[in-house]
Amino acid sequence: MNIVIVMPTYNEAENIGKMISALGEQFAKFPEDRFTLLVVEGNSPDGTADVVRKSAETIPYVHLLMEEKKAGIGAAYFYGFKYAMEKLDADYVVEMDADFQHNPNDLPKLIDAIHEGYDYVIGSRFTKGGSIPKDWALYRKFLSFGGSLFSKIVLNMFNVNDFTTGFKASRVRGFVDKIDFSTVSSKSFAYKIDLLYKMFKLGARIKEVPIEFGLRDRGSSKIEKNTFMDSLLTVLKLRYESNKSFFKFCIVGFTGLFVDIILSNLFRLFIPNPSIAASSAAMIAMMVTFILNNLWSFSENTIKETKALVKMFLLYVLGSIVPIIFRFIFVGYLTSAINASFLIYNVALFVSILFGLIWNYTFYSRIIWKKKSPKDASTSK
Ligand SMILES: Nc1nc2c(ncn2[C@@H]2O[C@H](COP(=O)(O)OP(=O)(O)O)[C@@H](O)[C@H]2O)c(=O)[nH]1
Ligand SMILES: [Mg+2]
Known about the structure:
binds guanosine-5'-diphosphate, Spore Coat Polysaccharide Biosynthesis Protein SpsA, Chain A, elongated, 7-stranded mixed β-sheet, single chain
């Protein structure tokens, strides 16, 4: 396996020499693999490049890639990835920092997982056995952990615990070579989440291995600290972009819910039977949502032809009848089993509506406004 460790540096003259030898010790543990340490140097004024250049004269695995000027950590990685793919023929690229916050002793865990055939290996601080520095202030621990938890829920990626770690290995073929770096949203810290989500979307087999995230050995941090909001916004943006129709469907759903609750209670005033009052309100709310969904939520697949429109509307009614039947039975059951008070009636209504939302989205997106095949979808953009 041809593994390239991509390591951006800016003013790491005090660390890089030690890092080069520490990595050499780890590389030696895997004689079957070929390793390159590709240092992507941001033209540091402290002479980092000179240290690397000098090592490269005698140590074959050291390779120096000079940037014209410091352009941020994300840009440095993308430059390094491209070089590793085009010039070094890498099978895997590993992201790693030069300041010993990533412990070279953890590298073998990543390499082992590569050998197990994983496409994306994440050095995780929040998996069993992983850690963040004990000396970190509580708020920093909280932001780091909370940010990952938030990402996990919003992005629906439950097999990942650490979304902002910078110690990772990625398979090149079919993955890194498929990513268009110009579309990675953030040049700063949040690029990590973006890249991670892109790998996930490409269908990477992911493994997390525990790492001990340390304190910087020497020198100082170059990364601005206002990255937390940047990361949160990136997560929301990624989620929204990957599933716009779901967000819109939810908004349409809430609009429908609003119409539904008002009508249900209005009808209740003059329709004595609660089942009939509730289910006829649902019918009208359904028509409103059909129109909005067709024109807006699923606008990529809007049905325009009259014939198809009629056919799909009938199907829509048929599909949407399921939650109405559910509601008919459930509201009837709850109001007769407990009582027909305002509270019980609305509780029954709420449960029925929740069921309806889940059922409907699945039915609409898979049947009514089914995505065209990828070929059609790309031409229709
Ligand atoms: N080439 C390059 N490297 C950078 C840049 N910013 C940070 N680095 C390197 O990226 C790694 C992580 O940066 P660091 O300052 O330790 O970030 P922190 O750990 O979040 O404080 C280190 O190896 C830095 O030397 C940059 O703009 N260009
Ligand atoms: Mg650091």
